[in-house]
Structure formats: C-alpha cells, structure tokens
Amino acid sequence: MIANRSEVTELIRIQKLNKGISWKQISEAIGQSKEWSTAACLGQMTLTKAQAEAVGKLLDLPDEALAWLQIAPYKGSLPTEVPTDPLIYRWYELVNVYGTTLKELIHEEFGDGIMSAIDFSMDLQREENEKGDRVSVVMSGKFLPYKMY
Catalytic residue positions? Predict the structure, then answer.
C-alpha cells in the first residue's frame, strides 16, 4: 500500500534507474517538456489521467501510484528549510545573492508585482565551453502586477 506521494516519487526514481530510462524519455511519454515532466514525477505537478497512465506504462507502476500522480501535490516540499544537497543549495545561494537584484530589476522594468511560477516555463540545456561545460537555464514567468483595491 502506498501511503503518500513521496513513496510514489521514490518508486519512479527506482524504476527509472532499473529500466535505464532518461527524464527526456519520460517527458516524451507524458507529452510535456523534460523540465515540467521531471517536476511532475518528483511530486511538484499534477498529471492528467492519460499522462499518469503513460508514465505508469513506461515504468510499470501500480494503479495506486497512478492515482497519486493525479492528486494536486504539496509543492515546494524540500526535506529541510535550507537545502543541504549541494546542487540545490547553490540555487538557494543564487536567490540569496541575486534575489534582491532580480526583484529590483523586475520592479523597475514591470512595476510592483511578481513573476509567476504558475504561468511559467523553463528550459535547461548543456552549453559547451572550452573552459568547462556550462548549465544554461532560461526561465520565463508571466508578470502579475499587484492590484489596487
């Protein structure tokens, strides 16, 4: 019996490893970007029935797991307040160092509001570089102004 969404995430990771399947292959089965599909499989997005069935077929998941994939998850569910994984911590560090800069520049360009993480897209690519490959991440979120009322 699967007790929570975290158990489904672990099952997906185990089956992905056992079958030698990439996140790109999973995203192709789901029919969405590799970034969104990976987030969904890691418990941050809700899959449709058809998407859950496609993942289930690819990874041989039980029906119970497919039901969990279709439930709206608790988003932002890192295990600790300050991330301890070095890669995730660097993103945390990036926001700590550049967060106020991003806020100032977005407000200067758009006004008082936020960049949506709901109406959002992301593209992650390897950028070859003679000094060592780089990680290129492009994020695009709809600007949502604060309303006066």
Answer: 90, 93, 116
